[in-house]
Amino acid sequence: MKITVIHGQSHKGSTYHITKQIIDKISGADKEVYEYFMPSDTPNYCVGCYKCFYESENACPQAEKVQKLVESMEASDVIVIDSPTYCYGMTGQLKTFFDHLGYMWLSHRPKQAMFRKVGIVISTAAGAGSNKVTKALAQQMFWLGIPKVFQYSKSVKASNWETIPDKFRESIAKDISNLSIKVNAIVKKVRPDFRLRLVFTIMRKMQKSNNWNMVDHDYWKENGWLDKNRPW
Ligand SMILES: Cc1cc2nc3c(=O)[nH]c(=O)nc-3n(C[C@H](O)[C@H](O)[C@H](O)COP(=O)(O)O)c2cc1C
Q: Which domain covers residue 6, as residue numbers?
């Protein structure tokens, strides 16, 4: 099983340790893990040049870093993204990375490989907001065409992994066991559900009449998606 792990932070706190436990549980001896930490592996912020949309993703001033992550995601069966909850949102450095993936949204040039992936998104908060973060991360994954995304959010009542109360550690371990069973059951078998197919159909209709961005239009045409081909 190939797994890309993108940590929305560089320190190894509660969020990191929960992610690590999930990775250990979902993979066997054949696992290959590609791991990235934000911000050291993050591209610099998007400057709004629109080159990825109107020319090519390779024309982005940050293409080298962005494409390294994209290639890794494309090659993986499972994509895991985590972030501590910061002010009711994901970390700024993780959002910076997502801004660079806009060209891969269903509304532009989604990658065929994404329609077969399983996503896992994880966030911890001291008190409230971690479910908002996993929801936002899952939304990003949906728009990349990832058909199944598991969300794990936890209020850990702590500012670091060492001080998490025992009862929370126990409940986390139990949750992770349950989650890993669900993930293992569908890896390499997942297919888009009705909602994803519907959004794809709407985007297809839009791309048929798209005369404002020929890079996107030609991409859909070359993939045969304006005819009978589908990415799943
Ligand atoms: C800048 C900053 C903002 C935070 N914002 C929130 C918040 O909105 N809600 C919350 O419950 N905890 C918040 N926290 C606490 C962390 O989300 C919480 O301790 C989390 O478990 C830390 O994960 P980590 O150990 O992986 O860094 C914040 C912490 C920091 C440093």
A: 2-192
Q: Is the whole model's pTM more than 0.90, yes or no?
A: yes
Atom 17 (ligand 1) nearest CA: 125
Task: Say if ligand 1 is within 6 A of residue 168 CB.
Answer: no
Q: Is the CB of 92 under 6 A from ligand 1?
A: no
Asked, for residue 186, whether it belongs to a domain, the answer is: yes
Q: How far apart are CA 129 and CA 108, in angstroms?
A: 30
How many structural domains are present in the chain? 1
Element counts in the chain: helices (H) and strands (E): 8, 5
Q: Is residue 15 part of a domain?
A: yes
Ligand 1 centroid distance, CA of 98 (Å): 20
- The CATH number of the domain holding residue 106 is 3.40.50.360
Q: Which atom of ligand 1 is nearest to the CA of 13?
A: 25
CA distance 118 to 148: 5
pLDDT tens track for 48-86: 999 999 999 999 999 999 999 999 999 999 999 999 999
- What's the sign of the alpha-carbon dihedral 185, 187, 191, 196? positive
Residue 213 lies in a domain: no
What would the pLDDT profile of 155-198 be if each residue is shown by its tens digit?
999 999 999 989 899 999 999 999 999 999 999 999 999 999 99
In this predicted model, what pLDDT tens digit does every residue of 119-168 receive, in sequence order? Answer: 999 999 999 999 999 999 999 999 999 999 999 999 999 999 999 989 89
